[in-house]
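[Meeting: bench + compute handoff]

Bench side (C.D.) handed over the final construct sequence. Compute side (W.E.) agreed to return the predicted structure before the next meeting so the bench team could plan truncations. Sequence as handed over:
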Amino acid sequence: MVTTARTHNPQRPLRRTRHSDDGGDSPFIWREALWGLDWLSLRLSPVYLGIGVPHGDGSPVILVPGFLTTDAYMVEMYFWLRRVGYSPFLSGIGVNADCIQTLTQRLEKTAEAAHAETGKPVRIIGHSLGGLLARRLSLRRPDIVSQLISLGAPIQSLEAHPAIMAAAKFVGERADHRREKSDSSGACLNSCECLAPSEVVRCPPPSVHHTALYSRDDGVIDWRNCLEPEPSLNHEVGGTHIGLVFNARAYRIVAELLAQASDRSGRRAA
């Protein structure tokens, strides 16, 4: 049984995100400076050593980093997954600051390689924008993807704190200058044709187990944008957005979700 977590029913779509003194209930981005507390809590938790959590069956698990980060950001979770019995893979997408279509294609190559190497369907854990890439791949390749776990990923709406959106615009403009193209990579976060709004909230097919972990203290993405349409699939863990990849409670729930999906797949095979 997955650790009990509060769920929220997102009946209304969210298209705007408030992160300022406008009376909104979204947290301020400065709280993200506390991500180190998430990391410290993880190191002090028995979960970090694999104690008290179900262990894996050797299935391949691909880790996808968030916007402007690389695979190095997911190394902590990578080695933890190895300790608890899985075959972790880094995404191989490079810096997550390119066209979403291009990044998804790179991720697909990694998934194909992991599937071929292990002979098993892959699971994907995506943080923030990495969760969006993972979702696109699960829609595109349900033949090799069996599970999707989103950590603070923009599911309901591709919106973020204004500072993050400004960074995306800056990256896009620099890419424009380098490539001398009219379409910038950063525009993928706003209006790129490769990302239709309906794809953000599309649910994977029934063969792909999908779940979302979120924090109401998220200082980057409005936590309501991180929810799956089905309330039972949402698990609140607390902590910062940056620290979701170092969050002890998130690790415990991830271990339980991975084990549950293995059990269900085993029963189907039997």
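W.E. noted at the follow-up: The longest helix spans residues 248-269. C.D. will use this when planning the next construct.
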